[in-house]
Write a structure and sequence with these properties.
The chain is of the alpha+beta class. Helix content is 34%, strand content 14%. The chain has a 6-stranded antiparallel beta sheet, with no helix packed on it.
Protein backbone atom coordinates (compact mmCIF):
# COMPACT_ATOMS: atom_id res chain seq x y z
CA UNK A 1 0.00 0.00 0.00
CA UNK A 2 1.63 3.31 -1.01
CA UNK A 3 2.04 5.92 1.66
CA UNK A 4 0.60 9.33 0.86
CA UNK A 5 3.29 11.92 0.24
CA UNK A 6 3.45 14.59 2.99
CA UNK A 7 1.95 17.93 2.12
CA UNK A 8 4.60 20.49 1.21
CA UNK A 9 4.36 24.26 1.14
CA UNK A 10 6.43 27.01 -0.35
CA UNK A 11 9.60 27.79 1.66
CA UNK A 12 8.97 30.47 4.28
CA UNK A 13 5.24 29.76 4.58
CA UNK A 14 3.40 27.78 7.25
CA UNK A 15 1.51 24.68 6.21
CA UNK A 16 -1.54 25.51 8.30
CA UNK A 17 -2.18 29.09 7.21
CA UNK A 18 -0.03 29.71 4.16
CA UNK A 19 1.28 32.87 5.84
CA UNK A 20 4.95 33.80 6.04
CA UNK A 21 6.65 31.88 8.86
CA UNK A 22 8.45 34.99 10.15
CA UNK A 23 12.06 34.12 9.50
CA UNK A 24 12.25 30.56 8.23
CA UNK A 25 14.04 29.03 11.23
CA UNK A 26 11.48 26.23 11.20
CA UNK A 27 12.03 25.72 7.48
CA UNK A 28 15.78 25.34 8.04
CA UNK A 29 15.18 22.95 10.95
CA UNK A 30 12.75 20.91 8.85
CA UNK A 31 15.17 20.80 5.91
CA UNK A 32 18.00 19.63 8.16
CA UNK A 33 15.89 16.66 9.28
CA UNK A 34 14.05 16.10 5.96
CA UNK A 35 10.75 16.99 7.63
CA UNK A 36 7.85 18.90 6.10
CA UNK A 37 6.50 22.21 7.43
CA UNK A 38 3.36 20.38 8.63
CA UNK A 39 5.52 18.10 10.75
CA UNK A 40 7.23 21.02 12.49
CA UNK A 41 4.25 23.38 12.65
CA UNK A 42 3.77 25.21 15.95
CA UNK A 43 1.52 27.90 17.35
CA UNK A 44 1.89 31.55 16.45
CA UNK A 45 3.33 32.25 19.92
CA UNK A 46 6.32 29.99 19.24
CA UNK A 47 6.78 31.54 15.81
CA UNK A 48 6.88 34.96 17.46
CA UNK A 49 9.48 33.74 19.97
CA UNK A 50 11.58 32.39 17.11
CA UNK A 51 11.29 35.71 15.30
CA UNK A 52 12.40 37.60 18.40
CA UNK A 53 15.42 35.30 18.68
CA UNK A 54 16.50 36.36 15.22
CA UNK A 55 15.65 40.04 15.49
CA UNK A 56 16.68 41.08 19.00
CA UNK A 57 20.47 40.65 18.57
CA UNK A 58 20.34 42.72 15.40
CA UNK A 59 18.19 45.39 17.01
CA UNK A 60 20.45 45.37 20.06
CA UNK A 61 23.52 45.90 17.87
CA UNK A 62 21.85 48.82 16.09
CA UNK A 63 20.79 50.47 19.36
CA UNK A 64 24.23 49.94 20.93
CA UNK A 65 26.06 51.53 18.00
CA UNK A 66 23.52 54.38 17.81
CA UNK A 67 23.88 55.04 21.53
CA UNK A 68 27.67 54.97 21.29
CA UNK A 69 27.55 57.38 18.36
CA UNK A 70 25.35 59.76 20.35
CA UNK A 71 27.61 59.69 23.40
CA UNK A 72 30.72 60.34 21.34
CA UNK A 73 29.01 63.21 19.56
CA UNK A 74 27.77 64.66 22.85
CA UNK A 75 31.28 64.77 24.30
CA UNK A 76 32.69 66.05 20.99
CA UNK A 77 34.86 63.02 20.34
CA UNK A 78 33.44 62.96 16.81
CA UNK A 79 33.47 66.01 14.64
CA UNK A 80 30.26 66.86 12.79
CA UNK A 81 30.10 65.35 9.28
CA UNK A 82 33.21 63.27 9.88
CA UNK A 83 33.55 60.84 6.96
CA UNK A 84 35.98 58.60 8.84
CA UNK A 85 33.66 58.26 11.82
CA UNK A 86 30.73 57.53 9.52
CA UNK A 87 32.63 54.79 7.67
CA UNK A 88 33.78 53.20 10.93
CA UNK A 89 30.24 53.25 12.32
CA UNK A 90 28.88 51.66 9.14
CA UNK A 91 31.52 48.94 9.24
CA UNK A 92 30.81 48.23 12.91
CA UNK A 93 27.09 48.02 12.21
CA UNK A 94 27.57 45.71 9.23
CA UNK A 95 29.89 43.44 11.22
CA UNK A 96 27.52 43.26 14.19
CA UNK A 97 24.53 42.45 11.98
CA UNK A 98 26.44 39.79 10.07
CA UNK A 99 27.66 38.06 13.22
CA UNK A 100 24.30 38.09 15.01
CA UNK A 101 22.30 36.91 12.00
CA UNK A 102 24.85 34.22 11.17
CA UNK A 103 24.84 32.95 14.75
CA UNK A 104 21.06 32.83 14.89
CA UNK A 105 20.65 31.09 11.55
CA UNK A 106 22.99 28.29 12.64
CA UNK A 107 20.67 27.41 15.54
CA UNK A 108 18.40 25.10 13.45
CA UNK A 109 21.39 23.08 12.25
CA UNK A 110 22.75 22.85 15.79
CA UNK A 111 19.35 21.67 17.10
CA UNK A 112 19.12 19.06 14.33
CA UNK A 113 22.62 17.79 15.16
CA UNK A 114 21.69 17.50 18.85
CA UNK A 115 18.59 15.50 17.93
CA UNK A 116 20.66 13.06 15.82
CA UNK A 117 23.06 12.64 18.73
CA UNK A 118 20.17 12.05 21.14
CA UNK A 119 18.77 9.35 18.86
CA UNK A 120 22.16 7.64 18.73
CA UNK A 121 23.05 7.95 22.42
CA UNK A 122 19.57 7.41 23.84
CA UNK A 123 19.44 10.80 25.57
CA UNK A 124 16.58 13.25 25.81
CA UNK A 125 15.87 14.88 22.40
CA UNK A 126 16.09 18.67 22.55
CA UNK A 127 13.00 20.79 21.77
CA UNK A 128 13.20 23.58 19.24
CA UNK A 129 10.87 26.55 19.77
CA UNK A 130 7.74 24.47 20.31
CA UNK A 131 8.78 21.45 18.25
CA UNK A 132 9.03 18.79 20.98
CA UNK A 133 10.28 15.38 19.83
CA UNK A 134 9.97 12.65 22.44
CA UNK A 135 10.82 9.00 23.01
CA UNK A 136 7.92 6.59 22.49
CA UNK A 137 7.24 2.90 22.14
CA UNK A 138 5.56 2.18 18.80
CA UNK A 139 3.31 -0.88 18.82
CA UNK A 140 1.82 -1.93 15.52
CA UNK A 141 -1.87 -2.87 15.60
CA UNK A 142 -1.68 -4.74 12.30
CA UNK A 143 0.80 -7.42 11.21
CA UNK A 144 4.23 -6.05 10.40
CA UNK A 145 3.90 -7.15 6.78
CA UNK A 146 0.83 -4.92 6.38
CA UNK A 147 2.39 -1.74 7.79
CA UNK A 148 2.37 1.24 5.46
CA UNK A 149 5.85 2.70 5.91
CA UNK A 150 8.01 5.26 4.16
CA UNK A 151 11.64 5.94 5.02
CA UNK A 152 12.55 2.60 6.52
CA UNK A 153 10.99 -0.12 8.63
CA UNK A 154 9.64 -0.14 12.18
CA UNK A 155 12.11 -1.51 14.75
CA UNK A 156 10.03 -3.64 17.16
CA UNK A 157 11.25 -3.61 20.73
CA UNK A 158 13.14 -0.30 20.47
CA UNK A 159 12.06 3.10 21.70
CA UNK A 160 12.07 5.71 18.95
CA UNK A 161 11.92 9.48 18.76
CA UNK A 162 8.54 10.75 17.60
CA UNK A 163 7.57 14.13 16.16
CA UNK A 164 3.89 13.37 16.64
CA UNK A 165 1.26 12.94 13.93
CA UNK A 166 0.96 14.99 10.75
CA UNK A 167 -1.12 14.34 7.62
CA UNK A 168 -2.39 11.09 9.10
CA UNK A 169 1.09 9.69 9.63
CA UNK A 170 3.17 9.03 12.73
CA UNK A 171 6.52 10.71 12.15
CA UNK A 172 9.48 8.94 13.76
CA UNK A 173 13.22 9.47 13.51
CA UNK A 174 15.10 6.60 11.91
CA UNK A 175 18.75 6.70 13.11
CA UNK A 176 19.66 3.92 10.68
CA UNK A 177 18.94 6.15 7.67
CA UNK A 178 19.22 9.51 9.47
CA UNK A 179 15.83 10.40 7.98
CA UNK A 180 12.21 10.38 9.15
CA UNK A 181 10.20 7.18 9.18
CA UNK A 182 6.51 7.70 8.45
CA UNK A 183 3.86 5.12 9.33
CA UNK A 184 0.10 5.34 8.87
CA UNK A 185 -1.28 6.57 12.19
CA UNK A 186 -4.19 4.12 12.24
CA UNK A 187 -1.78 1.15 12.13
CA UNK A 188 0.18 1.86 15.32
CA UNK A 189 -0.27 3.07 18.86
CA UNK A 190 2.24 5.05 20.91
CA UNK A 191 3.04 4.47 24.57
CA UNK A 192 5.63 6.16 26.80
CA UNK A 193 8.71 3.97 27.35
CA UNK A 194 10.14 3.17 30.78
CA UNK A 195 13.24 4.85 29.40
CA UNK A 196 14.77 5.13 25.96
CA UNK A 197 17.61 2.70 26.65
CA UNK A 198 15.59 -0.26 27.94
CA UNK A 199 13.44 -0.28 24.82
CA UNK A 200 9.99 -1.75 24.34
CA UNK A 201 8.60 -5.26 24.02
CA UNK A 202 7.94 -6.57 20.50
CA UNK A 203 4.47 -6.62 18.99
CA UNK A 204 2.29 -9.25 20.63
CA UNK A 205 4.76 -9.98 23.43
CA UNK A 206 2.86 -8.13 26.12
CA UNK A 207 6.15 -6.50 27.15
CA UNK A 208 5.42 -3.02 25.92
CA UNK A 209 4.99 -0.33 28.52
CA UNK A 210 1.20 -0.34 28.38
CA UNK A 211 -0.24 -2.85 30.85
CA UNK A 212 -2.64 -5.53 29.54
CA UNK A 213 -6.02 -4.01 28.83
CA UNK A 214 -4.74 -0.47 29.30
CA UNK A 215 -5.88 2.23 26.94
CA UNK A 216 -3.02 3.90 25.09
CA UNK A 217 -2.81 7.68 25.17
CA UNK A 218 -4.02 9.39 21.99
CA UNK A 219 -1.52 10.02 19.25
CA UNK A 220 -0.21 13.57 19.54
CA UNK A 221 -1.03 15.57 16.43
CA UNK A 222 0.76 18.69 15.26
CA UNK A 223 -1.22 21.96 15.54
CA UNK A 224 -3.02 22.57 12.30
CA UNK A 225 -2.16 19.11 10.95
Amino acid sequence: MPLREPERTLPGFTAATGLPSWIGLYDIYADELALTPAETSVSGVWQLIAAVKLLWPSLGAVLFIAAGWGILRYFHFIRPRSITAGVLAALALATALTVTVSTTLTSPQAAADRLRQAATRGTEPPPYFGVSPEWVCVVNTVPTSELTEKGGALRPGKAQISFGVADGQVVLWNPATSEPLRIAADQVRLTPPRNQTLGCGPYGSGQDTASPGAVSPPLRARPGA
